[in-house]
Fold this sequence. Notes:
Layout: E1 2-5, H1 7-15, H2 19-28, E2 32-36, H3 37-45, H4 54-65, E3 69-72, H5 76-89, E4 93-95, E5 98-99, H6 105-116, E6 121-123, H7 127-134, H8 136-147, E7 152-153, H9 155-164, E8 169-171, H10 173-182, H11 194-206, H12 213-223
Parallel strand pairs: 1-2, 1-6, 2-3, 6-8
Antiparallel strand pairs: 4-5, 4-7
Amino acid sequence: MNVVIDSGTMITFSSTCLMNVFIRFAQENRLQLIVSHDVSEESVWKPLSNKRFALNAARIKHLFNESIVRVISSTHEVVQLEKQILDLANNCFFSKGKPIQILQRGEAEALALAKIHKARALFVDERTVRSLIENPSRLKQVLEKRQHKTVKADEKCIADFRKMFSNLKIFRSVDIIALAFEQDLFNGELDKGQLELEAALYATKFAGCAVSEKEIQDYLKHLT
């Protein structure tokens, strides 16, 4: 099964020392993980020259070298679809008559890759993409709270965007950790216990994964 993975998710796993758990998860579920060339630059080749981030980059580089993650070169088709996605997403919400930019180029590129390569899932830690697909009304509330202004939604744009990705499932690092725990994939890395699961879930949160305290507590309640 093809799955597109964003740089943020790879960085989360490499920086929390949970990379082995992630590799087992990908292998156990026979995932064909793919990233764009730009993502490989962002997550590996640029940070390799920075001593502060070099170890994390080297861990991600290992994923590429072992063909656990495959780097896909950008094509004209990807670039065109990326522009279409950006135009659509960034005209879904308006404040004082002006469109609110909610999607960045990297996220749009990941979505374009997912569409073109018929990916069943997208691994991304940022909340906006998931909210736009699964709960746009909640995203509208977040935007209003963030901007302290009334936000209007273009329902047609939102419907068109959601239709484009109606078959795409979004997973964050925290969701992958929970699934790995269920599948007994902590073996050799961590014991299978509540303490270990809680520590791993919070590690992803502190590494930048968009997850609430309530969501973590719900996982702990249902999985342990």
